[in-house]
């Protein structure tokens, strides 16, 4: 009689891989690093919508979160807002648009920059190995192109008389990525190229990589010389790849 499945990888109790290949993962509302609280001053409204319907494939939907400032300037002048994509970090194996640190960052970006912020989720390892995350990030920006071409955003409680959600400046799109999200931003830049011609009328004007996380089959200098960490160590990262 074989032994019962046992934990072979443990990522701070958030994600556990068992000897039989099964995965245990805490839900987003069970995770809060450093007890971060949401800082919402009411200057931004937000909505969650599906950008990639995977139910037809028997898989889960993928969501993104839209953030829009509600300043007087934006409302009275029907101002077309620049668009910022924000891809969260987490070493490709943890993270979500709903995490307080990600949510706070997007609230602040939208409010202070007066921009429409789009924060997509993407599939995580080890359930979905790379390049699944890259494919989802690509799909999330193609979703924006579809909205630009059809000139509408649809969601269950959408008010057809309120065009403030669809008044975007598709010619001013910027992509920001944190950690593994920075890696995603890098790959999107390579894929779309200068001016992102395949996304027309959407045009990505720039990419911002915040402490980008890179790794590959060949060890970088920091991977070879740096101390091993209990969280996202080389053994875990090799399994993600």
UniProtKB/TrEMBL annotation:
<dbReference type="GO" id="GO:0016787">
    <property type="term" value="F:hydrolase activity"/>
</dbReference>
<comment type="similarity">
    <text>Belongs to the 'GDXG' lipolytic enzyme family.</text>
</comment>
<dbReference type="Pfam" id="PF07859">
    <property type="entry name" value="Abhydrolase_3"/>
</dbReference>
<dbReference type="InterPro" id="IPR050466">
    <property type="entry name" value="Carboxylest/Gibb_receptor"/>
</dbReference>
<dbReference type="InterPro" id="IPR029058">
    <property type="entry name" value="AB_hydrolase_fold"/>
</dbReference>
<protein>
    <recommendedName>
        <fullName>Alpha/beta hydrolase fold-3 domain-containing protein</fullName>
    </recommendedName>
</protein>
<feature type="domain" description="Alpha/beta hydrolase fold-3">
    <location>
        <begin position="85"/>
        <end position="238"/>
    </location>
</feature>
<dbReference type="InterPro" id="IPR013094">
    <property type="entry name" value="AB_hydrolase_3"/>
</dbReference>
């Amino acid at each position: 009689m074989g032994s019962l499945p046992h934990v072979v990888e443990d990522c701070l109790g958030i994600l556990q891989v068992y000897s039989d290949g099964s995965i245990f993962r805490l839900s987003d509302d069970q995770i809060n690093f450093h007890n971060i609280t949401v800082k919402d001053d009411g200057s931004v409204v937000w909505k969650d919508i599906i950008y990639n319907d995977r139910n037809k494939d028997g898989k889960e939907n993928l969501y993104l979160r839209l953030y829009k400032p509600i300043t007087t300037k934006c409302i009275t002048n029907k101002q077309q807002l620049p668009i910022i994509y924000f891809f969260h970090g987490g070493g490709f194996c943890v993270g979500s648009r709903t995490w307080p640190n990600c949510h706070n960052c997007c609230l602040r970006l939208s409010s202070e920059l007066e921009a429409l912020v789009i924060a997509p989720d993407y599939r995580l390892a080890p359930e979905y190995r790379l390049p699944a995350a890259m494919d989802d990030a690509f799909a999330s920006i193609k979703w924006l192109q579809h909205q630009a071409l059809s000139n509408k955003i649809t969601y269950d409680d959408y008010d057809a008389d309120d065009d403030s959600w669809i008044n975007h400046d598709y010619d001013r799109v910027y992509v920001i990525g944190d950690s593994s999200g920075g890696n995603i931003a890098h790959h999107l830049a390579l894929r779309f190229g200068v001016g992102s011609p395949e996304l027309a009328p959407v045009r990505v004007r720039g990419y911002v990589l915040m402490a980008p996380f890179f790794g590959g089959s060949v060890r970088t200098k920091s991977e070879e010389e740096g101390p091993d960490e209990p969280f996202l160590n080389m053994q875990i990262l090799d399994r993600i790849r």
